Amino acid sequence: MISTTTNSIEGKRVKEYKGIVFGEVVSGVNFIKDFAAGLSNFFGGRSKSYEGELIEARENAIKEMEMRASRLGANAVIGVRIDYEVLGQGGNMLMVTASGTAVVVE
What we know:
This protein has one domain (2-105): Hypothetical protein apc22750. Chain B (Translation Initiation Factor IF3, 2-Layer Sandwich). It contains 2 helices and 4 strands, in the order ββααββ. The protein has helices at 31-43, 48-71; strands spanning 2-3, 14-28, 76-87, 93-105. A 4-stranded mixed sheet has the order 1-3-4-2. β3 and β4 form a beta hairpin. The two termini are 12 Å apart.
């Protein structure tokens, strides 16, 4: 499955549009990661625990989007966008949404 942020794929022709597809992931941050991130915030530096959570959530959202495109008979997703939101009381939930247009290319 090809996924791209562009509206076309070089060397390929869009043969059929299958529709808009989404992949959503809502992930909670546990106490240990929250504590470790707080230390990074206090002492400075990058928060590896939050970065890892963000990377995993983004990859899962893209995989879910591609799986839904495949179910529609698509072999690519164009115009991909990734959105991030913080949810929940105290902002302890992360939502990542991947969206794009499922297409058949040749």
